[in-house]
Write a structure and sequence with these properties.
It is a single chain. This protein has one domain: Hexapeptide repeat proteins (UDP N-Acetylglucosamine Acyltransferase, domain 1, 3 Solenoid), CATH 2.160.10. Helix content is 0%, strand content 34%. The protein is built from no helices and 24 strands. It has strands at residues 7-8, 13-14, 19-20, 25-26, 31-32, 37-38, 43-44, 49-50, 55-56, 61-62, 67-68, 73-74, 79-80, 85-86, 91-92, 95-97, 103-105, 108-109, 114-115, 120-121, 132-133, 138-139, 147-150, 155-159. Strands 2-5-8-11-14-19-21-23-24 form a nine-stranded mixed beta sheet, with no helix packed on it. β23 (147-150) and β24 form a beta hairpin. It is globular and about 45 Å long.
């Protein structure tokens, strides 16, 4: 189902079993796979590809050229840069900040990052530009630009040069 209040770009394919809510903007030349859910207010750039069972929650921003494998979830308000590759099973979590009236705290992902399968991005942690996160990692701290991190919790391994 595609909301009549959603704006869909040219040459964008949306699978008949995908669900697109109100006030969503999806750019040109995108591919939205089966059972994907894109919630109110999400903005998806051009040339993005989401395979199956992805959920992009309210007010997320996804930069152009970004791809996501199956079963990925972006909690509300997550910002993903351009040309990011996210493998299957990724989850960007959120948590309420009780000091800010339950405002949700989320992280960001910088341009050109590569995130392995089954990675969890914890609330208020961010992944820098051109960073690489190894499979099955849990990111609890900010990962600087151009670094390789992996593990539970994810730790610095080397520079990505």
């Amino acid at each position: 189902m595609i909301s009549t209040k959603a704006k869909i770009g040219k040459n964008t394919f949306i699978h008949p079993l995908a669900y697109i809510e109100d006030d969503v903007i999806i750019g040109d030349n995108c591919h939205i796979g089966p059972f994907c859910i894109i919630r109110n207010g999400a903005i998806i750039g051009d040339n993005c590809k989401f395979t199956a069972y992805c959920e992009i929650r309210n007010n997320c921003r996804v930069g152009s050229g970004t791809t996501m494998g199956s079963r990925c979830t972006l909690s509300a308000n997550v910002i993903v840069g351009k040309n990011v590759v996210i493998k299957y099973g990724f989850v960007a979590t959120d948590t309420p900040d009780l000091k800010q009236g339950d405002k949700k705290i989320t992280g960001t992902i910088g341009d050109g990052a590569l995130i392995g399968a089954n990675v969890t991005l914890m609330p208020n942690a961010s992944i820098g530009k051109n960073a690489i996160i190894g499979a099955n990692s849990q990111v609890r701290k900010n990962v600087p630009d151009n670094e390789v991190w992996y593990g539970i919790p994810a730790k610095f391994h080397k520079k990505n040069i």
